[in-house]
Amino acid sequence: MGFLDLESVKKLKALADKGCDLRKEGFLTPERISSHQKSACGFKLLWGCERVDSEIMDALFALAKEGKALDKMKAMQSGEVINSIEGVESENRSVLHTAMRDFFEDRIASAPAKKASDEAKKEFDKLKSFLEKEGSKFDHLIQVGIGGSELGPKALVIASTAYGKKGKSVDFVSNVDPDDMARAFKGINLKRTIVVIVSKSGGTMETLTNEKLARSYFEKEGIDSKDHFVAVTGKGSPMDDPSRYLGCFYIWDFVGGRYSATSMVGGVALAFLLGIEGYEAILKGASTMDKHALSAPMEKNLPLISALLGIWNRNFLEMATCAIIPYSQALLRFPAHLQQCDMESNGKHIDRLGKRVKFHTGPVIWGEPGTNGQHSFYQLIHQGTDIVPLEFVGFEKSQYAEDLDVDGTTSQQKLLSNLFAQAVALALGQKSDNPNKSFEGNRPSRMLLAKQLDPFHLGALLAYYEHKVAFQGFIWNINSFDQEGVQLGKKLAVRVIDEFKGKNDFILGKAFINELKGL
Amino acid sequence: MGFLDLESVKKLKALADKGCDLRKEGFLTPERISSHQKSACGFKLLWGCERVDSEIMDALFALAKEGKALDKMKAMQSGEVINSIEGVESENRSVLHTAMRDFFEDRIASAPAKKASDEAKKEFDKLKSFLEKEGSKFDHLIQVGIGGSELGPKALVIASTAYGKKGKSVDFVSNVDPDDMARAFKGINLKRTIVVIVSKSGGTMETLTNEKLARSYFEKEGIDSKDHFVAVTGKGSPMDDPSRYLGCFYIWDFVGGRYSATSMVGGVALAFLLGIEGYEAILKGASTMDKHALSAPMEKNLPLISALLGIWNRNFLEMATCAIIPYSQALLRFPAHLQQCDMESNGKHIDRLGKRVKFHTGPVIWGEPGTNGQHSFYQLIHQGTDIVPLEFVGFEKSQYAEDLDVDGTTSQQKLLSNLFAQAVALALGQKSDNPNKSFEGNRPSRMLLAKQLDPFHLGALLAYYEHKVAFQGFIWNINSFDQEGVQLGKKLAVRVIDEFKGKNDFILGKAFINELKGL
Prior knowledge:
Chain A is α/β, with parallel strands linked by helices and 519 residues long. Chain A is built from 17 helices and 15 strands. Chain A has a 6-stranded mixed β-sheet, with helices on both faces.
């Protein structure tokens, strides 16, 4: 059944017409804030500043039930074939990123999930041995990979650098832009550098080109690159070749790039930086959130509640974008990872029945850390003509615990004060005789709080968003796990490359190349 | 006269209803690509992949004329008081960021512009002397500032690092998050570090707090911080105090933060990194684009054409966002700068007559470099349910010229091939029997090309966007130069900070603080 056919969708449309106004006298109270929250895995989700009342929340939970959100989550984590579209050729695979970290309590018992997590554990142990043997030879790691082979791992590395081992650093090269590589190789000690090449297929154009470019830096110095290069790839791929790599770690086609950060795709760099125990803590956090998403009842299920509120804002209040604003500078690249995770998963125009959808799927996801954003795009968020719903993330304690009391409060308290103030300002607005100083308010936000952004909570945060995205896809009944939309551009790029070689076959490609000449 | 009252707006509405389809047989041809382009200041703007025909372009130029776009640009660059709203209290100032770099040919003759550029030149010369005297004492510069005191300068620093002097590096701290400072101060040589504190008013909460925190690192090491700190601030502000700073450089209230990157706000760090001549080249590029925006006729005026195409997409084709995708990793933080420049300028709900607007103003601006984005959010751009218009930026040559021929083409050629391929793929789409492999096409983009991202072209690129934003504001008849929308959050943040101190006066702030305790 398609999304628009669901009974609860009709009900929600009617409720949206009726509206729910945060500015109403006596609506946004301390009691509302404390009653609209749930906790799990060390996180607390607060949604008192969303435009919902109990009738709307009931209808949203009915939607989750009708859309079989929890059943589908169970099917996913059990390894059923859910990456598929009925009646047409599709990837037809399991989706088992959760198995990549299912090493702890209450392991999933189903055969495919168990097999996947056993294999993942084997890679984890291999990595541990590898770092014990080779880790001390290197101070600096450069990861070469693009898309999910960069965004998630980089977001996690930056977010956890505060916990990094002394003397270890990590950098990333993703773009086929040669300047990205030149920048990364400028002024480093090659003898102490390890390069991790990540490509599931072993055939990503950018990554293979960059691997050759990266090896050329070593060769120029007379260093045998094979002693410095590690592969993360699928078993049997062209990159699965011990004669060319110091080590080779496996990933599988049932783990999509954008969901692969906790697999070896992120694992090698994270374990190098944090030690194997730091990486393990991330996995444990993620796995704890996986079990919560799987087993918690709807009314207490954090990623599900967040998914439902997102659907409310997107499909019923017609908001085209969603901003993710972490009040933590360490999460600087988290929004870029979530752009991929969310938009590549849910930016789809057909549903799992192969039908063109007649409703909005995934919104544009964007964001930057607060308080920085407050001095930038918040002008539009407060007084622009479109409403942008916000997801805030905040932590009680800082990572480094290097803080100073200035005028009676610490910087961390000032940071959190700004977060809380924004939620209230957006919800209530402000009347003024000066139209330029008036704020219309009724602009929704929700807030995810935890004690500290340590490796455990970082893993849980990653998984929270993965499951929020998956739940939305389940309810929209789209396939969140393929990415056919990236293929056409790839195909045409090969044809333009041929034009650079003088093939003279793709006239539009040639036309653009001609424009270059006239510069 | 308001935007909706313009004759050309009515005409454009009718044309939008009629539509313009890029997929039409014989529409997108090599001839169209080469006839829909204009060059200036070393840049070429190509808009053959926008959904416009000659009738629409004529109507857009009529709109620019009716909206007095060029007259208002002249008023701005001449220093007339244009930061104002009729009939209500407003900032009532000139807007003279262009004067900050008007040191070259054809200087603007009007008295206020001349006075401003004379003063700016004085600061430039002061900076030159300062660096001659003090520059060799330092290897590392940390700039502390937020909003425009970070985003523009940081975007420029990253974009020009390839041209940096050997041994010089620059970092930024913006967030009140104490971890941002801790990260920046980890493992650096304080004796060789200079810290630049930037605040026009001398009263920005984040920056003052961070200045104290930054000085504490020096004091802990027994180093007198005054020999390491430089102020960039307004004359007579609390920070204009030679007893506390090694140097003090001035900025003025007629230069808005988001337009201040070429003033001393960005100048100290850029001249430190690139040498004064590198900074001067950026200024020269920006000034060249300023004169072009001022003097080029509409049909050849690059930022104006871009502004008009943006208005077409936003107001007539109803697109809520706009993605800026530089095919250059060096422009990594340029979209974040443009988020501020554009959204803080044009995310407004009242016009210059003080009336609530009944049309859409500034869109959400977002983006990441290509090809990276292709492996991330492009899924949504190709197959999502909303159309996202794109602005591509590309360069014929790389910065470092460290490139490798792999399979007959260089990385730079592969990079450009991807750019060109995306424009075509988005415009034409692809039919398929498999609905999951079908691309609807008719998705618009435009493209800005230049030979190389060197300091001159970087300056011109910055100014191009500043003027695109200004032209859109002129045509919408809004005030692009204030930011009242950021005030309410600031005010409430002070009240939450008081709650952390136990004031017990702001019950909603207190409610959120209570939620922290339960974590």
